[in-house]
Amino acid sequence: MDAPATRADFLSRFHELNDRFEALEPEMELTVRDPELDVTGHLVVWSTLAARKGPLGPCAKGGTRLTRTVDIEELRMLSRIQTLKNAAAGLALGGAKSGLAADPTAPGFETKYRRFVDLLKPVLHENGGVFGGFGYDLGGNPIHCRWACDQLGSTRSFTGKPVELGGTDYDAEGIAGLGVARAAATATRLRGEELKEMCYAVQGVGAMGAGVIRYFNPTGAQLTWISDPRLGGTWHLPNGPEPALLNDLISMHFQSAIERLQEGEYHEHGLEEVLFAPVDILFPCATQEVLHKDNEMRVQARIISEGANNPLTEMARTAFHERGVLVLPDFIANAGGVIAAYVEMTSSVGNEENARTRAKVEEAKRVTREKVAENVTQMLDLVERYEVEPVVAGRYIALSRIFE
Question: How far apart are CA 161 and CA 155, in angstroms?
Fold first, then answer.
């Protein structure tokens, strides 16, 4: 990627690339239905431009969202971001998102899910299409992998699989959280700060948040605030979590964690208070747009590493930059999941060897650490060199890889 000579040249090139991206239309939008089973599902493939010269050829990938309200509009937004995220991570992989409008906890969901998988079978990459396959997103559960692989008679079109099926087991391994933690650690190091002197907060202790805690706590930073509806709200941990509580959080053993929180010297607050806690680093790992123009001024953190999809509005990102808060955008920080997916899709390691050695797991972790650190370093170099927002610098990296 050539470096423009001046800030004006950089912005000119950025706007040229951004205009090209904004002019893109989805390469594929597909709605599938089975009225008898009350099945409505969607797939959006935004772009495969970054993938066409790669080992998979035209292929796009992203998670599978399972909520009652998911619709084509939501998946358009997510697939655009996924296109940027995949390119920013340096992967020859386009962006896509699929979704089934159903409650994954309701009776009869397995039948609906299996039918949804069947309906998308013709467009799967292993069958000559551009859709790289299913994966985890909101509503995901490890059993869904088993159902999908069984229904397809193949393990090639679901990523995040258990190791014995040839996967990286990235939800259980917390590889997405590894990327978000790595982004924050890299940025802190580049700023010349000591992690052992810092404290942090995590909003959302699902697979992402638990992964962040798992990989960020060993840096020496102290976890002092956590929040999740399954924990009853926000909890202040003045001296950090005791080892047993830390293990419960990493393992997502919520009932045990609640008991320890209630019995220990911890303090309960409202669910959203974690966002405004007096910490050095904030990891929003729950839902989208939790920080916006009406609440960003209450945030006290100096670094925000985005774990959820789009947890900050664009207006909030700009406001944070103007007041000196460093934001590491999700499409740069939150790339571990799709990196692991790409490893699964391109690795030549067989299922038996993978089950024995966990080779794909270790490769996914290694590549995640390397790529996220490299991309954060490059992004912050552009921020300093051209005096632009991190989201602009990160987007420039992604756009350059899509079109060049």
Answer: 8
Pairing of strands 94-101, 64-67: parallel
pLDDT 10s digits, 61-73: 999 999 999 999 9
Q: Delimit the domains of the chain by residue range.
A: 24-155, 175-333
Give yes or no on whether 24-155 and 175-333 have one common fold.
Answer: yes
What DSSP state is assigned to residue 267? E
Tell me the per-residue pLDDT of 191-236, one tens digit each, with 9 for 90 and over. Answer: 999 999 999 999 999 989 999 999 999 999 999 999 999 999 999 9
Q: For residue 99, give the 3-state DSSP assignment.
A: strand
Measured CA distances, 214 to 115, 126, 176, 206 (Å): 36, 34, 11, 12
Domain 175-333 class? Answer: alpha beta
Contact 163, 195 (CB under 8 A): no
Q: Rounded CA gap, 218 and 52, in Å?
A: 39
Topology of the domain comprising 24-155? Rossmann fold (3.40.50)
How far apart are the C-alpha atoms of 58 and 50, rounded to whole Å?
8
Summarised one tens digit per residue, pLDDT across range 87-112 is 999 999 999 999 999 999 999 999 99
Integer Cα distance of 74 and 71 in angstroms: 6
Decide: 215 and 178 in contact? Cβ < 8 Å.
yes
Residue 1's pLDDT is 63
Do residues 269 and 291 make contact, with C-beta atoms less than 8 angstroms apart?
A: no
Which residues sit opposite 351 in a β-bridge? none
Q: Which distant-in-sequence residues (6+ apart) come within 8 Å of 104 by Cβ?
A: 66, 113, 139, 140, 141, 144
Ranges under pLDDT 70 in the chain: 1
